[in-house]
Design brief:
The protein has two domains: about 60 residues, no CATH class; about 150 residues, Spore Coat Polysaccharide Biosynthesis Protein SpsA, Chain A (Alpha-Beta Complex), CATH 3.90.550. About 45% of the residues lie in helices and about 15% in strands. Helix 4 packs parallel to helix 7 and helix 6 runs parallel beside helix 7. The N and C termini lie far apart (about 40 Å). Its cofactor is Ca(2+); Mn(2+); Mg(2+). Keywords: Endoplasmic reticulum, Glycosyltransferase, Magnesium, Manganese, Metal-binding, Transferase. It catalyses: a di-trans,poly-cis-dolichyl phosphate + GDP-alpha-D-mannose = a di-trans,poly-cis-dolichyl beta-D-mannosyl phosphate + GDP.
Length: about 210
């Protein structure tokens, strides 16, 4: 690719063999390219970002799910978009251009669409996909946002964009295809939906 990169894998004790596969990749590509930084149990998305950031040596950080629902083929497009507009953040969007979602049932699609619609109405964030997590950040911008964000779980992604707008950071978007995971299960349940709604109302009241 001609891009200088490292891959930092944060695994929170998942039972799906992620760590074992990452160890094999480390042997093939070297520990300078594949950095496995596991944690003993699930400690939340926000703390995983902070944990990964501590080990990142580059000026830009791409955050993505490792189950290939976020396809690496979009990363060069993120980099191109960033250079094109000198953006602080480039966010993958499923809801613009030729972006889309594949493999979800109707319930999951309705939840995601509904969450985005509610967020657009209440917060007017100026970005089309608030609940996705496939994004490129300037490292120093990500650090600043992490200091400001207080949410946990799925609200966290939304708060990152809302706070970025508040702080005057620029956001570019790249349409992506999101393909539901082949292995493993989504962690989205009733508790996450309730906490999302609470978080959305908190952001509405405080931003």
């Amino acid at each position: 690719s001609g891009i200088d990169f490292e891959i930092i894998i944060i695994d929170d004790g998942s039972p799906d063999g992620t760590q074992e596969i990452a160890q094999q990749l480390e042997k093939i590509y070297g520990s300078d390219k594949i950095l496995l930084r596991p944690r003993p149990r699930k400690l939340g998305l926000g703390t995983a970002y902070i944990h990964g950031m501590k080990h990142a040596t580059g000026n830009f950080i791409v955050i993505m799910d490792a189950d290939l629902s976020h396809h690496p083929k979009f990363i060069p497009e993120f980099i191109r978009k960033q250079k094109e507009g000198n953006f602080d953040i480039v966010s993958g969007t499923r809801y613009k251009g030729n972006g889309g979602v594949y493999g979800w049932d109707l319930r999951r699609k309705l939840i995601s669409r509904g969450a985005n619609f509610l967020t657009q109405v209440l917060l007017r964030p100026g970005a089309s996909d608030l609940t996705g997590s496939f994004r490129l950040y300037r490292k120093e911008v990500l650090q600043k946002l992490m200091e400001k964000c207080v949410s946990k779980g799925y609200v966290f992604q939304m708060e990152m964009i809302v706070r970025a707008r508040q702080l005057g950071y620029t956001i570019g978007e790249v349409p992506i295809s999101f393909v539901d995971r082949v292995y493993g299960e989504s962690k989205l349940g009733g508790n996450e939906i309730v906490s999302f709604l609470k978080g959305l109302l908190t952001l509405f009241a405080t931003t």
